[in-house]
Design goal:
Order of helices and strands: HEEEEEEEE
CATH superfamily: Sortase
Number of strands: 8
Structural class: alpha+beta
Strand content: 25-35%
Largest sheet: 8 strands, mixed, barrel
Strand order of the largest sheet: 1-2-3-4-7-8-6-5
CATH class: Mainly Beta
CATH architecture: Beta Barrel
Distance between the termini: 75 Å
Shape: globular
Amino acid sequence: MRPDVVLRLVVRTFSEVCLTAGTLIVLFVAYVLLWTGVKADRAMDGEMARLRDDWAAAAAPAAAPEPAPAPSPKPAEPVRHPAGQAFAEMYIPRFGKDWNKPVLEGTGTELLKKGLGHYPGTAALGATGNFSVAGHRRTYGDPFKDFPELRPGDAVILKDATTWYTYTVRGGPLRTLPTDIGVVDPVPRKSPFTTPGRYLTLTTCDPEWGHSHRLVVWAELTGTRAVGQGGPEGLPR
């Protein structure tokens, strides 16, 4: 075969390979950016619907004519939820009036595709200690996409079957390594806190499309309100 024919064949084959590879890359990016988000949004909506149905079913027999008084903070003993079970909702006004996500027990890879994850072994919601939560920054709904926008004074609001909890951001975002597990200690290391209290730690990956580091924000419990009394101040209407 003549050299010029061979060259044309090689160039054409290389071009076709590049075109195929480019198409596959575009499809993969579309899957990561779009389809995982669609699946995650559906999964989160399903978790919140089930959670609200459970709350409604549990509250129906014990409905009271008058709102209950604001509860005292929960005791320090942790409440254990089954792994993978949704048990609370989170609202962060800084992220927009429509931002709310389910919080599930555990931080496994599959679980974080359905919502935010509570670090096993950390404090119960509202209890003394450090209620610690992880979430994806990108892909699977991008729940913590705007994490770097959090500032001291911002509210992080959580709700379970009986109570609204308002935590106020006091420190962060701090960039650290994934091995720095002291950030979720009962009195979290590198945080503004030096004594026991009722704290919240939020973590996500950094950089935005990587996972070599973590971003961390700390907050402390500044208010509670019984569900029957309506949502707390700062919650988007």
